[in-house]
Amino acid sequence: MFFYTLGINLYNFGAKVLSPFNEKAKLYTLGREGLFENLKQNVKPTDKNVWFHVSSLGEFEQGRPVMEKFREKYPDYKIILTFFSPSGYEVRKDYKGADYVCYMPSDTPKNAKMFLDIVNPKAVFFVKYDFWYNFLSEVHSRNIPLYIFSTIFRSSQVFFKWYGAKYKKVLNFFSHLFVQDEDSVKLLASLGINNVTIAGDTRFDRVCQITQNAQNIPIVDKFVEDNKVIVAGSSWPPDESLIFPALEKLREKHKIKLIIAPHEIHESHLAMIEKTPNFKYVRFSKAKEESVNEFEVLIIDNFGMLSRLYKYADIAYVGGGFGAGIHNILEAVSYGIPVVFGTNYKRFKEAVDLVSLGSAATIRNSEELFSVLDRYLSDSALLERAGKISDEYVKKNLGAADMILSNVEIK
Question: Is the pLDDT of residue 232 over 80?
Answer without folding.
Answer: yes
